[in-house]
Every structure is written in structure tokens, then in C-alpha cells.
UniProtKB/TrEMBL annotation, chains A, B:
Residues 323-343 are annotated as: Disordered. This is LacI family DNA-binding transcriptional regulator. PROSITE patterns: HTH_LACI_1, HTH_LACI_2. Keywords: DNA-binding, Transcription, Transcription regulation. InterPro entries: HTH_LacI (IPR000843), LacI/GalR-like_sensor (IPR046335), Lambda_DNA-bd_dom_sf (IPR010982), Peripla_BP_I (IPR028082). The keyword Thylakoid does not apply. It comes from Streptomyces bambusae. Pfam families: LacI, Peripla_BP_3. Residues 323-334 have a biased composition (Basic and acidic residues). GO terms for molecular function: DNA binding.
Length: 343, 343
DNA sequence: GCCCCGAACTAAACCGCATTAGTTCCGGCC
DNA sequence: GGCCGGAACTAATGCGGTTTAGTTCGGGGC
């Protein structure tokens, strides 16, 4: 096991003091250019990297940001959203030599406890808060602790926090444009968890858009689920068995959309002949069903990059602000068509 | 922003020296039981948590382990395997107050570079190595650095490393038992990346099992893919268009299996009437298709727990060893049936 | 020729904890 | 009564950096 070189090794080898090494490698004044170059060369030779603990201890940043995912274990994994987001986050963090502490916990209480612990342990410089809720204890907690944070998907964060989010209202309007334009008048939105802020925004937007078009609440409405394939399928079955079933369904994620397509197949309802389907979020799933699903395509990795950039900006002392993600695009595929004339 | 309490604060408040506090809170001798209790109480009141950087700096563990996922960004996310694994890993790590540094990188070179950096920065105490390959530079590198590691999915790791893995050979035998028992004689295994060690094991096992049953290589064989829905679909289309197409297909992951089911539907080939499908790894996906897919069910979270336990054991000074995951179970659903009599 | 100043560098303190080397005090023993 | 030993505690050191407070030295100004 090789020994890790320290600045002491560099200092000895370059014939200078340890402080000179520190100055040289951090680009501060106090050493001549020749010395700086020499020290740099030696550090390079030795393959030196600053000990992250020592750095963190002497007041610098820890070089770590945290991301907690509070979800029951069994709902994990099928959705493409998270790994995409995380991969975008890391593109930006990696370039800034910042690591990502990632943790999956069972619920919101555990998440809050974890923030407290991370703060007390000085383990992270800041956190990305995902799945913001309508009444969310986290922004207040983080603001109180003074732990820098960026909420991902929140419209009105606590004043002290930055936020990045998508324009869900406009996206929903886009979907309604598409379906209404095709002639659909009875539309059900199979929504995700209603406590989540973005779900609430989508539901509100659906209602507003419907009203704007003179459609009544019994014709166009949202039904809540927990995002799982099971509840997505159950909700689909329920609304399709109503006396005047919808002619179009909008799903809040790809997994439920695929599950819904399965239910339609099982009930013998042709898609898009008698039923149109739209998925919010695209992924391989939407392209492997038959017919392929019309989907709202978002660049989730770009969203992650935006979030990471914003967090780094906050860590660098920037002012908190709200940034909007690039507008998603509706990709029409074979699962949407005009409703049957009979209706 | 509240100030984080340190042992100095505790010492002052409890009227003892800092060392007494350290002794008391770490359960070592040198303080009386009353004093220990008092110090514990004060620490509790103040909400003290050890500063992770200071701990790491004074020779203790950093309390962090790393996990690097080397995959091009676009192949991320649809598979359920990883988040499940990670959630299992964290159940165990969380209990041991150990954090997980998680990073997504583009390729193996970047992964190796990251291990070097983490090692030099003393950022992690150990790492979990996933996606082991047939000729893998990582175990050698890690052994050379002296960075404790557990490979997840490797049969014969470098002698210095621990490993947890599944018994792919027996699982494959199980699948062949099922299909052969139903009467299938022409079977294609749509495999994942051939460089991955577990893919190689599955391919070898398929060949061995076929031979044992007197089936020829042109009847029972593996075709490689990159795990994506695209290649899974392409491979399916290719083999189904052959003069003597297989009557059963075994897919190395759930995403490809669902994509394959889509291709069969598109080609008008009834499942399971003329074609049986098996997915390696179960997930919501396998239950939303029609028919639902027969799948090899593994407890991936348990696999993650096993890996984390083993890594903690290694960090605690345990001997390197190889541990087998619980045997997976084949869950027959509607996608497998006897082949058509004509064949 | 002396003084002052800034550039270039070194010494030392500090971050928060673990740990080793003392120190104090008390009781038991001869 | 003096000595020894152990329990209970304190002081001091180190981990590997950053940073502040010196120190040295050479050159320019008067």
C-alpha cells in the first residue's frame, strides 16, 4: 500500500516550507513564479491530491454535496427520472471536483434527521432537495441550519433558498392543446402523489386549462396515485369502467403510462382508436409498447446540470434565485389520435 | 445559522477536559461512570455530532464508502437493478453511520481515475465495485492502492478482495429446466455486454447446460447486446426472422425483455403461443406487459445489503472472502408455455 | 550610506478530534 | 508512615491542510 504524499513531502522535495507549497498550489501570492512552477512540478510527480478531511477541517469546503431520496424502497428503480437527474448533476459537480453524497431513506422524517446529522457532522457543503411538497418542512429546516440548498422542482421556495424547476403549467397546457386539438373532450390526468409540489402544479394547471376551454370538471380531471405501476393500472381500470369513460389519459410518469397501456390492452380497448395515451416523461419504456406512447420529453440530465450549477453558485456566495428549466417538448407518437366519432 | 457544537463546548459545559469528553463519548476507559453519563447528557443536549473531517483526519475512518457507475449517460435509468442495489446497500451503511459517495462516470478509465483521486484525497474508506469485467483493471488497481473493496458480481476477484455474487450458472440452469421441460429446443439468450463477468458466466452456463441436454450450439445460443432496449429489440427481430427461429427467448434484463415482447407483438407472433419469453430480473415492467413476463426474481436489495455488510467486514479488518447471494427464483407467468406442436 | 518597503519566504497557530504521556489523589500494604 | 499502584482525569501532540504573523533580503529613494 503506497503512502499518500502530503504537502510536507512536497516541501521537503522542493526545498521550501510547507506554507510555500500551500501558497503555490492554491494560486495565492507569496511565492515567485519559478518556485510556484517547481512546486507544481513536484506535486505532479508525487501525484499529490489535497487530503479532503484536512481541507474541510481548516475551514474550506468539504467538497461534498448531498442528495437524499425519501421513498419507500419498493417504489424505487423503475422510473428513469432519478438516475438521469443524478447523472446530469454529476457532470457539473465532477468538473468542480465536488462529490455527491447520495442517500435513500424511507420517509421525510428520516430525511430531515439526515440533514441535521450531515450539518452537525459538517459532512456536506450543501444539498439538493428533491420532491418538494406543498407543505414542506425541509426548506425551513435547512434555512435554520444555514445549510445551503437548492430545491429541485419548487416554485416558491423559502426566501433564502435557490430553486430550479420546470414550467409544469405550460407543459400541461401543451398536452391539452394536443389532445383538445385532436378533439378530445373527456380527459383524465392520472397524477402522482398529490402532496408533491409539482403534482399540485400540474393538477392546478389542468383545471385552469380546462376552464379556459369551457370544459367541465367532470369531463377533465385529475386522479391521484402514488406513482406506482399498480396504482396507475388501478386508476386506469377505474376510470375506463365509468359510464362515460375518458377518451384520453395523461400519466404523470412513464411507468404508469405503460401500466395503463397494459390495462387498455387487457380490456380490449384499442389505442389510439378508442383511447389516447400521453406519458409525462419519456424513456425507453414509452418506445417499447405498441403502439409507442406519445410523451412529454424533458431533458432531465440538463435539469440536473442546472440544479448543480445553481448549487455551486450558492456555495460560491451567489444570491438565491429561481431558475426555469428548458421547456419540455411533446413528442407525438402512435398512442394519440382523434377520439372515436361515436363520442 | 447555529454554530455547530464541538467537544470543547461539551468540555466547558460539563466542567471537564476535552480528552475526558473524547474518552466518554467513545466508550473508552479513563472516566468514571457518573462523569461519562454527565458528558453524554451534555452532548445530547447540545446535539453534538463528531465533525467527520476531524475524525477522518485523526486517523479514524472517513465514514464514507464509494460506488462508481461507469455507464454512458443515455443507458442509465430504465433498469431497476441499480437503485434497488443502492437502497439495499444503504440500509446497512446507514445503520453503521457510513455515507455513500455515488458517482456516475462515462467509462472505465474515468472510474479508475476517480479511484486514484479518492484514494489520494482519502475521501473514502473503501469502495464497492460493480459491473466486474472479464479482464478488469480495477481489482489490481485497488489492491495496489490498498483501498479496501468488495466486487459485486465477480466470481474470482483478485486474492486481496472480497466479493459477493449471484450463482448465475445455477440460475441459468433453472431457466433451462423450465424451458426444456416445457418442450423448447431452440432457445436464444439475448445477453448483455459480453465483457461483463456475469454475462460471460451466463453464456458459459447456457452452453454447458445445452450440452448436458444434448442440444446443439445452433439450437441454443447467446447473442450479445449492450443491454439497451434498442439492441434488445434489434436482436429479437434478427433471430425471429431466421429460417428456424427460436421458440423461446431469455433476456438478460427486464428492459430488453419488454422491448422483445414489443417486437413479437409487432411481428404478429403470439406469446406464449408461438414464442416464450423469460426476463432475467423482475420489476414492474415485467408485470405491465401482456402477457406478463415470466421472470427470474432476485432480491436485489438483499444483494446490496450483503455487499455492504461484506465491505464493512473488510473495513473492520475481516479476511477477504467470496459470498454467494440467495438463490434467485423463477416466477412463471403467462409468457412461457410449451412451444407450438408444429415445431 | 542609511532607511524603508515590498517581495519571497518561513514559523507558528488553528481547525476538531484521537491518543499518548503525564499528573493527582486515594486506598492498601508492609 | 512511607511507598506503590491504579483510577480518574488533564496536558500536549499529531493528523494535513490554510492562514496569519513574522523574518530576510535586496533595491530604490533621499
Amino acid at each position: 500500500m503506497a503512502r499518500r504524499p502530503t504537502i510536507k513531502d512536497i516541501a521537503r522535495r522542493a526545498g521550501v516550507s510547507e506554507s510555500a507549497v500551500s501558497f503555490a498550489l492554491n494560486g495565492r501570492p507569496g511565492v515567485s513564479e519559478e518556485t510556484r512552477a517547481r512546486i507544481r512540478r513536484v506535486a505532479e510527480e508525487l501525484g499529490w491530491q489535497p487530503n479532503s478531511a484536512a481541507r474541510a477541517l481548516s475551514g474550506e469546503r468539504a467538497g461534498v454535496v448531498g442528495l437524499v431520496l425519501a421513498r419507500p424502497a419498493h417504489t424505487l428503480g423503475v422510473e428513469s427520472f432519478f438516475l438521469q437527474l443524478v447523472s446530469g448533476v454529476q457532470e457539473v459537480l465532477g468538473a468542480a471536483r465536488t462529490a455527491l453524497l447520495f442517500q435513500v431513506v424511507e420517509d421525510l422524517d428520516a430525511e430531515c434527521a439526515l440533514y441535521r446529522r450531515w450539518w452537525a457532522e459538517r459532512r456536506v457543503d450543501g444539498v439538493l432537495v428533491v420532491d418538494p411538497r406543498t407543505r414542506d418542512p425541509r426548506p425551513g429546516l435547512l434555512a435554520g441550519l444555514g445549510l445551503p440548498a437548492v430545491t429541485v422542482g419548487e416554485a416558491r421556495p423559502a426566501p433564502a433558498l435557490s430553486s430550479v424547476r420546470a414550467d409544469d403549467a405550460r407543459a400541461m397546457a401543451q398536452i391539452l392543446d394536443h389532445l383538445h386539438g385532436l378533439g378530445h373532450r373527456r380527459i383524465v390526468h392520472v397524477a402522482g402523489l398529490p402532496e408533491l409540489a409539482h403534482t399540485a402544479r400540474r393538477i392546478a394547471s389542468l383545471r385552469a386549462e380546462a376552464q379556459r376551454r369551457g370544459l367541465r370538471p367532470q369531463e377533465v380531471r385529475s386522479v391521484p396515485t402514488d406513482y406506482s405501476d399498480t396504482e396507475g393500472a388501478a386508476a386506469t381500470r377505474r376510470v375506463l369502467n365509468e359510464p362515460a369513460p375518458p377518451t384520453a389519459l395523461v400519466y404523470d410518469n412513464d411507468v404508469m403510462a405503460v401500466a395503463g397501456a397494459g390495462v387498455a390492452a387487457e380490456l380490449g380497448i384499442p389505442v389510439p382508436g378508442r383511447l389516447s395515451l400521453v406519458a409525462w416523461d419519456d424513456s425507453a419504456l414509452c418506445r417499447v409498447t405498441h403502439p409507442r406512447l406519445t410523451a412529454l420529453v424533458r431533458d432531465t440530465a440538463a435539469f440536473g446540470r442546472l440544479a448543480a450549477e445553481e448549487l455551486l453558485a450558492v456555495l460560491g456566495g451567489g444570491q438565491p434565485r429561481v431558475r426555469l428549466a428548458e421547456q419540455p417538448r411533446l413528442e407525438p407518437r402512435e398512442s394519440t389520435a382523434p377520439p372515436p366519432p361515436a363520442y
